Prior knowledge:
The chain is mainly alpha-helical. The protein has one domain (about 10-135). It is built from five helices and six strands. It has helices at about 1-10, 10-35, 50-55, 75-80, 105-135, and strands spanning about 45, 60, 60-65, 65-70, 70-75, 90. A two-stranded antiparallel ribbon has the order 1-6. The longest helix has about 35 residues, at about 105-135.
Amino acid sequence: MLIDKLLFSDPVPMMMKKSLDFNSTRHLLISNNISQMDTPGYKANDVDFKSQLRDAVGSGSYLNLKATHKNHFGPGMMSLKSLSPLPHEENLLAKSNGNNVNIDYEMAKLAQNQIDFNAVTQMMMKRGSTVKSAVTELPQQ
Length: 141
């Protein structure tokens, strides 16, 4: 029963997958911002996974709960599945040509995004290793 819950009804794998999707989209947006840094009138774009995840799962002391059975409560999987990256224009100070791309800021975001992507990837691998060791009854590697 526990392995069934871990594999099929736990929202954590879905959150990690969505996080990787957002990181990939964010990487493309940041790369595009950097490539357009000299284009007059270009406005930098970004996505905010944390706020969208907070809206889908719940924030602060408020948690969106969905009853799948009268004795079961937890965040609805549909709210996680429906998450998709929504790019927004960054409100940064524009240069004289109307372009608001700051190369230092974009490079810092790119480095942070890579760190986030690597961390989620490592968590997914560790989770897979834990499930594999539970199923095979071998010690974790």
